[in-house]
Amino acid sequence: MNSKINIPIALKNITNHFSPKIIGEVNDVYIKIVKILGEKVPWHNHKNEDELFYVIKGSLLFEIEGKDSFIMNKGDLFTVRKGINHRVSSDKECEIMLIENKTTAHTGDVKSEITKSIAHQILE
Amino acid sequence: MNSKINIPIALKNITNHFSPKIIGEVNDVYIKIVKILGEKVPWHNHKNEDELFYVIKGSLLFEIEGKDSFIMNKGDLFTVRKGINHRVSSDKECEIMLIENKTTAHTGDVKSEITKSIAHQILE
What we know:
- Chain A is mainly β.
- The first copy, chain A, has a single domain, classed as Jelly Rolls, CATH 2.60.120.
- Chain A has one helix and eight strands.
- In chain A, strands 2, 3, 4, 5, 6, 7 and 8 form a seven-stranded antiparallel sheet that branches.
- In chain A, a hairpin with a 5-residue loop joins β5 and β6.
- The radius of gyration of chain A is 13 Å and the shape is globular.
- Chains A and B meet through β1, α1, β2, β4 and β7 of A and β1, α1, β2, β4 and β7 of B.
- β1 of chain A pairs antiparallel with β7 of chain B.
């Protein structure tokens, strides 16, 4: 992972939804890309870690427990703080970048049908 | 910094070149945007920290000491490893995102005319 990577090209090669792929790393952080279509992300939180969302294409519905939900559009960036229950969904395909600690589990402590280990997030 | 921010709009409000602005944070990391035009970035390194570059608009010439230089285009992402001497430039305006530790000085230990403190990197 010491050479440059083109994110739009990497996204073209991703066919599965809800399956984050690591496309970069910097210090203790992974940069991931993921396609969202539908509502399969379970409510979850990351006890000790913030998680950053950046929308590359499309729109994302962001829900936070006890707060008004909101839409993130292309170019929008938002950080959900540690311990905050959240979930994201989209009724049309949405492409996002995630910035999170290498230790962060993408569905928190919740195991669901979309949960992937870090080994399964390596870009082929 | 707990609400969403739109990066293209934030970029429109930045008029100075070589002046990184913090537009997000996640754990120990700042997300910054900066416009590059010309060759004012001095050769420098970050002794203990990697630094990630992501091109939002335009093209960036990336030079690494002792290696072939290369061009980064829109959508390209590259991490320069800690301790590696590097500099970036562009003959046309280029818009980039930086992902780096909160402790990272943007021109390393080098003080140049473009060097900004973290206080001067806060988005107004």
